[in-house]
Design a protein that fits this description.
48% helix, mainly alpha, 11 helices, 2 domains
Length: 234
């Protein structure tokens, strides 16, 4: 979330307070701190450098801790949208111990949650967490294999999808395919992220949501995804 309010204004939404925080957790005496209160960073205070009577240089740097400036300070009883997303990912990892949390899942759940939580309907906002979790589980049921490293080179893993991308590229632009092959630019360098995260990192959030409207509405959605990835190379 570093500088997202400047670079990606839509993503600053996740730092703002949810209108429907989880009352059972926020402000409750649960014996542990919310993650927001644990987000801290260390800074060095500048000190004057001097020499003692023996000519030895003395520089005493003292560390201090303060709340991370990158996170919006919320009032007691409030809950940031990113905390809601964190809770859903934690619950997903607990319900799927064989897979757990894999880096990149946050990029999948983010656009889904934003769609519900930023809706103009108060009812959609109120049930955004539950609806998002259900939709995320349904989508992960289709792309789960992409997040399992042991399946990368199998017929159902992400390796197979990257092979399909390169086969399509070779069919549409053989010269480009040969050029990439000669320069040893493997699809793992670009196609891996495109396919695994459903292009969620390649475009601004509103464009990702528009793209997903078409992607998720298509029965052959992964063929559509490969077509879009190929078009990005052409």
């Amino acid at each position: 979330m570093v500088c997202c309010s400047r670079l990606y204004p839509d993503l600053s939404f996740f730092q703002s307070a949810s209108s429907y925080p989880c009352r059972e957790l926020v402000g409750a005496v649960s014996g542990f701190e919310n993650l927001r209160r644990r987000v801290e960073h260390s800074v060095l205070k500048s000190q004057n450098v001097g020499r003692n009577r023996l000519g030895i240089t003395i520089a005493d740097y003292k560390r201090s801790r303060k709340p991370c400036d990158e996170y919006v300070v919320l009032e007691e009883g409030e809950e940031a949208h990113w905390e809601v997303v964190e809770r859903m990912l934690f619950l997903y990892s607990k319900l799927n111990p064989g897979q757990g949390y894999v880096q990149g899942m946050n990029e999948i759940i983010g656009p889904i949650y934003y769609t519900f939580a930023a809706d103009s309907s108060p009812q959609c906002q109120e049930y955004a967490e539950a609806d998002t979790f259900w939709c995320f589980n349904q989508l992960m049921g289709e792309i789960r294999d992409n997040f399992i490293k042991q399946l990368d080179d199998s017929h159902c893993g992400i390796g197979m999808l990257m092979d399909r991308l390169m086969t399509l590229l070779k069919e549409k632009d053989t010269a480009l395919w040969v050029k990439l092959h000669q320069q040893d630019l493997k699809p793992q360098y670009y196609g891996f992220r495109w396919i695994m995260l459903l292009l969620s990192q390649e475009f601004p959030l509103p464009d990702v949501i528009r793209l997903w409207d078409s992607l998720l509405a298509d029965e052959n959605r992964f063929d559509f995804l490969i077509d879009v990835c190929c078009a990005m190379l052409l």
